[in-house]
């Protein structure tokens, strides 16, 4: 899903993690300000709405597979 490349960037301190994926998509995670949960945002680009929706489904599925693997390995 990613390149495993890490880069230090000089930005203001924040409670957000943003991951840039291969071919342009990104995933952003942040804590909710009012509830005990993590919010996840996805950024996708496609030539058409249909292409963007398909890419979004693929990225979301891959992301959730990775999250589930991490949860299961922590048990």
TrEMBL record:
Catalytic reaction annotation: alpha-D-glucose 1-phosphate = alpha-D-glucose 6-phosphate
Signal peptide interval: none
UniProt keywords, alphabetically: Carbohydrate metabolism, Glucose metabolism, Isomerase, Magnesium, Metal-binding
Record flagged with keyword Cell membrane: no
Pfam families reported in the protein's UniProt record: PGM_PMM_IV
Biological process terms in GO annotation: glucose metabolic process; purine ribonucleoside salvage
A GO molecular-function annotation: phosphopentomutase activity
EC code: 5.4.2.2
Residues of the Alpha-D-phosphohexomutase C-terminal domain: 14-53
Highest taxon in the source lineage: Bacteria
PANTHER family, sorted: PHOSPHOGLUCOMUTASE 2B-RELATED (PTHR45745:SF1), PHOSPHOMANNOMUTASE 45A (PTHR45745)
UniProt protein name: phosphoglucomutase (alpha-D-glucose-1,6-bisphosphate-dependent)
Organism phylogeny: Bacteria, Bacillati, Bacillota, Bacilli, Bacillales
